[in-house]
Amino acid sequence: MTTEQATIVRNDRDRVAVLLMDYPGRTMNIVDERLLDDLRTHVDRILADASVDAIVLGSAKAAFGAGADVAWLPTLVARPDAEEFLAKVHRLMLELAGSPKPVVAAVAGSALGGALELALATSAIVAAENARLGLPEVTLGLLPGGGGTQLLRRFVRLDAAADLLTTGRSVDARQAADLGLVQQVATGSDLIATAVSVALGRVGALAGVALLPGTASVLDAQRDALADSRAGLTSAAAKILDVLAAGIADGIEEGLAQERRGFLELARSPYSRAAIHMFLVEADAKRRARTAEERVGGVAVVGGGQMGAGIAATAVTRGLSAVVRDVGSEDSLDRARAYLDAVLARSGRNDDEVRDRWTATVDWEGFSDAGAVVEAVFEDLDLKQRVLADVSDHVPDSALVATNTSAISIARLASAVSHPDRFIGMHFFSPVERMPLVELIPHRDTAPETALRAAALGRQLGKVPVVVGDAPGFFTSRVYARWLMEGIRLLLDGLPAEEIDAAAQSAGFPVGPLRAHDEATLELVIQASIGQVAENVMTDRLDVPALREALGKLVAGGVRGRRFGKGFYVYEDGKRKGPNDEVIAILGVPPSEAARDTAAERLLLAFATESFLCWDDGTLCHPDDGDLAAVLGIGFPRLLGGPFHWADEQGAAAIVKRCRALGTSAFPPGVALERLAAEGGRFAHARRRMAPFTDAAEQA
To answer: Record's superkingdom (predicted)?
Structure first.
């Protein structure tokens, strides 16, 4: 018979019971039924023990806790006694808050979600200088379910509480102290000793759960501010404000009752399921990128344009050194350095130490001992091959060599390097310092350890790595090209640009395809999305020559994009002023409303079906990777959880039916989706391929 390890270790000091959370088998403490039951057992014993005057709740790990186990939430909400369980949690929280013996939380590292809710139930929070505190549930389409919506107001004014809850942002120890969330910042090395001292100082103080005052008008102001923000007033944020309002109007007990109902309502919604799915697949991608590969101290970048400068700027802000080589004039290197200055300015940093990690050169200084090199010159096969051949002559044989490209064949580029087994594609996204994804593209001869090294480098740069196959456009550029092409197809069907983009946004895309054309420039769309992708993989489904001809006519007529002041929209000083009325005249297409009712559906299915085909042909290792890349890299609606999760939610049979309604010649559902429709299966149950193109036929 096995005995389950305890999640809490008790070590008393000076008539103070010190409870240290130490969840076994986890690098971070999680708050679940097991830990809460252990905590209740300890607290009951301590309250009955006359030899103990106070309690300190801390952690035996480096951090206080990461909140609830997100993977456990679907199991929780499916339980018939889910609301009763949450009520039990709330009773424990109120008992802690009203304890006749003071309870003090000792917080080091992160205290997020449910872990912070535990701390909010104590008499005071003592935080180490490295502490970071927050309630990020709203980012998962949820609200705090462990009493956080009400208990936060014990320490924090209503306006600040509403902001923290509806944005999900975290604060450091000093910021938390300014808000009143933290009562003392411990500057010494013994956090527990400080917390014990604070606890003893509160012995005999009146216990209670009084909340700071607030009025509904504060919540109305927050609601209006969110509605006007770029993110908008999400269903989770709106529900949080409703729950706060209930607590103000009818007291903490009613607020907690509304919190329980609101939590379960949100957790059972498709939007929260999508958000939780995205959280889990991102966490899994990061986990798989954890390797034993040695971390590099710096990166050498060839190419000082926007992508090269962005990669280098990201490196130095993440603690790495960066050498940037550009064969142009010193002016080009100055522009690259100015890019770094702009990145630092946007982040509010003016850090000479960061700038000192940046080196610019027109020679090969710093490359002879580089552990990792990223080539990031213009998207031209011949140019990249020449540069990569030069790189091979100036870096050690052991160096990881990567090319930043959005569509060019990695295998063809590999022919130019001395050690193709150490060569891989790393497709970064613009702006590099803000976009979280990097596609890793091994070619046939890439060694497995090279892919691991590239994944480790991606994580050092703060990116989420996804491995995809070396096919035209890889995954993201291919799917994005199909989506852009559907925008032009709708335009040629007579639908105005602004209505096409509005349809895309109604489906959940952050921007529409024609605005995306303007941002990229139409010439680049012709060169990359059509020339490198569509003409290679879509001619059997789309009239690609007609699409190229249409875009060519527009460019010839002066419709080039935002940078040139005129694209599908007219711009002044870079700001969009309205639609460009010349577009329809240049194309000679009569206006038509026939496509209006199906525009959003066509854009959604264009994106999704191309993703399904990438799974069929082996470009992806798993549908989860496609969801992650689609959302983080190319703007698939996060609220839908990626194209594969969306298909699972809708049901494969329903998606096949929708494809047939639009015409499977342009919207082919693919082999895997057709099979799932027949069998009632889900993409989520697919086996992970060890590498792209492995067992593609079997998986399809």
So the answer is: Bacteria
Q: What is the 3-state secondary structure (H, E, C) of 354-413?
A: HHHCEEEECCCCCCCCCCEEEECCCCCHHHHHHHHHHHHHHCCCCCEEEECCCCCCHHHH
Please give the Cα distance from 585 to 590 (Å, whole number): 8
Q: Are 56 and 106 in contact (CB under 8 A)?
A: yes
Rounded Cα distance between 265 and 241, Å, is 15
**Residue 494 CA: distances (Å) to CA of 177, 219, 514, 593, 596:** 58, 45, 14, 7, 9
What is d(CA 606, CA 659) in angstroms, rounded to the nearest whole number? 9
pLDDT above 80: residue 615: yes
The string of DSSP codes covering 94-107 is HHHHT-SS-EEEEE
- Tokens representing 402 are 């990567």
Contact 693, 620 (CB under 8 A): no
Cβ burial 363-399 (10 Å sphere, 16+ → b, else e): ebebbeebbbbbbbbebeeeebbebbebbbebbeeeb
Compute CA distances 130 → 58, 126, 319, 516, whole Å.
14, 12, 18, 41
The residue among 433, 394, 439 whose CA lies nearest residue 308 is 433
Q: Is there a catalytic annotation at residue 439?
A: yes
* pLDDT greater than 60 at residue 317: yes
DSSP string across 190-229? -HHHHHHHHHHHTTTPPP--PPPP--HHHHHHHHHHHHHS
One-letter identity of residue 646:
W
Percent of the chain with pLDDT over 70: 98
Cβ neighbour number for residue 590 with a 10 Å cutoff: 7
pLDDT digits (tens, 9 = 90+) for 351-395: 888 999 999 999 999 999 999 999 999 999 999 999 999 999 999
Angle between helices 235-250 and 158-167 (to 10 degrees): 150
pTM attached to this predicted model? 0.92
Query: Which one of 375, 439, 499, 674 is the catalytic residue?
Result: 439
Show the domains of the chain with their CATH numbers: 8-268 (3.90.226.10), 298-467 (3.40.50.720), 477-596 (1.10.1040.50), 600-699 (1.10.1040.10)
Q: Is 32 helix (H, G, I), strand (E, B) or coil?
A: coil
Q: State the pairing for strand pair 103-107/124-128.
A: parallel
Q: Where are the alpha helices (DSSP H) in 67-129?
A: 73-78, 82-97, 114-120
